[in-house]
Write a structure and sequence with these properties.
The chain has 347 residues and is α/β, with parallel strands linked by helices. Helix content is 49%, strand content 14%. Helix 8 packs antiparallel against helix 10, helix 12 packs across helix 16 and helix 14 crosses helix 16. The longest helix has 21 residues. The structure holds zinc ion (ZN). The site of zinc ion has 5 residues, from helix 12.
Length: 347
């Protein structure tokens, strides 16, 4: 029993992670497999007893609720990237079923967290869902994934660069709520994760087992740091707010992307560079890291005028959605500043 006077502050924990080959998996329960066509192809031959796999493509709450209602089985498998696994978390939580996550690319940290990001009213909201019960890591599958995708989750570690700046600036301005005060230890630990990523970007981007194992470790430590802080300010700042705003823009004007999928990590990479310039940080080291990581921070599907418009409207956007204080909160980006900032990082 816990003593009555102890505070019931719950600290989240990481799911259990199993490193094995997909050939070792023998699932005898009736499984619902959520995946995408390329991810399902990447795990061809996996011995999971399931009816047809369900291909996931929507990221609204309505999409996920509809999927959850249609799914029936004893265990849920999420095989693929962030969207698939986030959806699987939601479906498993709503049925109270066990969940196995099998990331085929390290494109986000979604397989380590217990909330599902959904797009609603023009922004991203996190619904409590559940962390996977088990995460399966097959290094061969990860190493053989397409280079621009397999390590794109590194952007969620690189984002510490701009997020920490924002968090510390907010502290100076007295804009952090009492539960989100900066501690020097959190800054030190976050900075060490960032520096380790910068030092090893080429190895990670090359997709070697050593590099991808290190990226997995960094994602685990970044998520664990957020658990201990009780919030994500150490890795989620103006660069993510920019991503939410531009995703919203892209979603509302479908023709802009010509049906191409833009990865979360690509947009985060772009957001990091833009915000680092606006923060007057030495941003070139971050661009160099993105290049080493093989993360395409200039996706062709995102036109420069869309980036400019998003920058110009960003302070209104963060006010409207009541996002935490960052460089985007007070900075008035004129069309001129927007154009210069974009030119700076894309030249
Ligand atoms: Zn992210």
């Amino acid at each position: 029993m816990l003593p009555d006077d102890c505070s019931h502050e719950k600290i989240g924990r990481l799911p259990s992670i199993v490193r094995c080959s997909l050939a070792d998996i023998k699932e005898r329960r009736e499984a619902v497999v959520l995946t995408t066509e390329p991810a399902w192809e990447a795990v061809k031959g996996i011995d999971v007893h399931s009816q047809q796999p369900v291909y996931v493509d929507g990221n609204t709450k309505a999409d996920m609720t509809a999927l959850a209602e249609a799914c029936e089985g004893e265990v849920i498998y999420g095989i693929g990237g962030g969207l698939v696994i986030d959806t699987a978390k939601y479906v498993a939580a709503s049925h109270g079923l066990p969940l196995i996550a099998f990331p085929t690319i390290l494109s986000t940290d979604a397989f380590l967290t217990d909330a599902t990001g959904v797009r609603e009213n023009g922004c991203v909201h996190y619904l409590p869902s559940k962390a996977p019960d088990t995460v399966i890591i097959d290094m061969d599958v990860l190493c053989n994934a397409p280079a621009p995708m397999r390590a794109s989750g590194a952007a969620d570690v690189l984002s510490i660069a701009t997020a920490i700046w924002d968090w510390q600036e907010a502290e100076k301005m007295g804009a952090n709520p009492s539960t989100q005060q900066v501690t020097p230890q959190a800054i030190d630990i976050g900075s060490t994760l960032l520096q380790t990523l910068l030092d090893n970007a080429r190895e990670i981007g090359s997709g070697t087992p050593t590099g991808l194992k290190l990226l997995l470790d960094l994602l685990c430590m970044e998520v664990q740091l957020c658990h201990l802080c009780g919030h994500s300010r150490v890795e989620e700042g103006s660069e993510h707010h920019f991503v939410y705003a531009i995703e919203n823009h892209l979603a509302s004007t479908n023709e802009t992307t010509n049906g191409e999928t833009v990865l979360h990590g690509e947009l985060v990479g772009l957001g990091i560079l833009l915000m680092a310039v606006l923060q007057s940080q030495p941003w070139m080291q971050y661009r160099h890291a993105l290049e080493c990581l093989q993360i395409n921070y200039r996706p062709s599907a995102v036109a420069p005028d869309v980036i400019a418009e998003t920058l110009i409207n960003l302070s209104d956007y963060v006010m409207q959605h009541q996002l935490p204080y960052t460089v985007a909160t007070t900075l008035r980006v004129t069309p001129d500043i927007a154009e210069r900032t974009i030119q700076t990082i894309l030249d």
